[in-house]
Design goal:
The chain is an alpha+beta fold. The chain has two domains: 106 residues, no CATH class; 172 residues, Beta Polymerase, domain 2. It has nine helices and 16 strands. It is found in: Membrane.
Length: 362
């Protein structure tokens, strides 16, 4: 009897020993595996990355996990907002990307099944990139800084990119052949000076001011895709709400521009005139004020008389190409021209007969 109890005790001890060894071994494997998996989970934060306060979801992990066999630009506004600005939940649905035109042949349905793909052209000699949108319409965007994750690139400064995208719809100029007297066909400003105009555009843009074509420059671009030959200056406008207090100081210290004239005050009829140093182009910058359904700019006469020029409200900007450079224009350009120049805006009006404070229709 004693021998049977001893044998039973030995057997039970052996069973418990093997169970303990098996459990400990598998516990170590499970723990190690869980630790390995945990390091790859979306909520595991890598240095320099942000986490959603609400969910612990890593903001950029979806970009890290994307794959493509060619370089691609992420242009999906909702996806970019959600993963880089709002730091929200994972994004579901197809992601809009742009692939360079030269790589079109490498885009196949299998690799790109999770993306909505459009194509863009990137000419290094231009100051913009051109995107053909899903509806076949062209978009023109200034060159912007990007950061990379694998073969994907996305904007470094998303708020600036969103502003560019909102104003990127391209409007084509008409390219009309305008009859002129020989004396009015003689060009006053060398067209090479367009580089100075683009340089001033970038100067203002760096201060958060988005200039757009105005006055005779808007008319010349839309009507004949150029600068009006007999014009003696070019015109920009910008929203008064974008005025930067550092503007005058920057102009006074600029190596590229000479500050020539300031009229009005920031709150009313403000106008700044500069001359470019390279090609000596005079450029007027008018600040635009909004009231109700209208926008207006002001002018100041030699006797300090004040003039107001009213337009249909400029609610949005589009993009134009002028002499192979991008510029912004009011999207309601035709309304603006008809208001300022009347129904005969297609007919040339020589600068020698144009009076700035009486020849406008508005």
């Amino acid at each position: 009897m004693y021998g049977e109890r001893l044998l039973f005790t030995v057997c039970i001890t052996a069973v418990l020993f093997f169970v303990s060894v098996f459990y400990d071994s598998n516990f170590e494997k499970i723990t190690a595996n869980a630790d390995r998996i945990g390091k790859n989970q979306p909520h595991h934060r890598r240095r320099g990355q942000r986490l959603s306060k609400a969910t612990g979801f890593e903001c950029t992990n979806q970009i890290n996990g994307l794959y493509t066999n060619v370089r691609a630009l992420i242009i999906d506004i909702d996806f970019l907002k959600q993963t880089t600005l709002e730091c929200a939940e994972p994004y579901f649905g197809k992601i809009k990307i742009a692939v360079e035109e030269r790589d079109r042949g490498q885009v196949d349905n299998k690799t790109f099944s999770e993306y909505d793909v459009i194509f863009y052209r990137d000419d290094a000699t231009r100051d913009y990139i051109e995107i053909v949108d899903y509806d076949g319409k062209r978009r023109i965007l200034p060159r912007f800084l990007t950061q990379s994750e694998g073969k994907f690139e996305y904007p470094t400064d998303l708020p600036a990119f969103l502003k560019y995208w909102e104003s990127s719809r391209m409007i084509e100029c008409l390219g009309l052949d305008i009859p002129r007297a020989p004396q009015d066909a003689k060009r006053r400003l060398k067209l090479e000076g367009i580089v100075d105009m683009a340089l001033y555009r970038d100067f203002l843009l760096a201060l958060g001011i988005h200039p757009f074509l105005n006055g005779g420059s808007l008319l010349g671009w839309y009507r004949e895709c150029s600068i009006i030959p007999h014009t003696q200056d070019v015109d920009f406008a910008a929203r008064a709400t974008e005025y930067n207090s550092k503007l005058l100081e920057k102009l006074q210290n600029s190596a590229d521009f000479r500050l020539k004239r300031i009229l009005g005050v920031k709150e009313d009829s403000y106008e700044i005139t500069i001359h470019t140093k390279a090609y000596n182009w005079p450029i007027d910058l008018f600040f635009v004020y909004d009231e109700g359904n209208t926008s207006w700019v002001g002018g100041t006469g030699a006797d300090l008389s004040k003039y107001i020029y009213t337009y249909p409200r400029i609610t949005s900007l589009c993009t134009a190409l002028l002499l192979e450079h991008y510029f912004w224009v009011p999207c309601n350009v035709l309304e603006i021209l008809q208001t300022e120049h009347g129904s005969n805006w297609r007919i040339d009006y020589p600068t020698r007969r144009f009076n700035w404070n009486s020849s406008h229709r508005n």
